[in-house]
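Trying the structure run again after the queue cleared.
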Amino acid sequence: MATGTINFYSKLKQWLQDGTVDLDNDTINIALLNEGYTPVHTHSTSAQLSNEVGTGGYAQQALSAVTIAATASAFVFDAANLVWTASGAAFTAYHWVMIDKTASDALLAWGLIDNSPAKVAVADGNTLTISWNANGIWKLD
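Done. Tokens:
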């Protein structure tokens, strides 16, 4: 599934500026949540999340191949796409959430798995792929 609009939690800009979050050195995980979670911009830690997927062999995944490119006018953050394989049972997911595990489980961003919006069912043995935009996960001008 391709991701759509990326939404940022309110504290992200502060944390990028004060060094709390170091995107290319911290462990950044992606969690999958069901539709029971209501994103709120002011959420700041993973303790405020609810309805994380709990079946089908699901586990959070760390971003890999993280890159940061800076130009005179922009900052681009990118990483490899992520793939989950349902194992032992099916699972469904509605949101993805980006969490900085190094920075005390700080919440960075979230988006929908399917922009319809709809929950996505992954049958046992099938995969769910989050494909980031070819221009990067996000670009800050």
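The helical segments are 12-18. Worth checking whether this holds up in the mutant runs.
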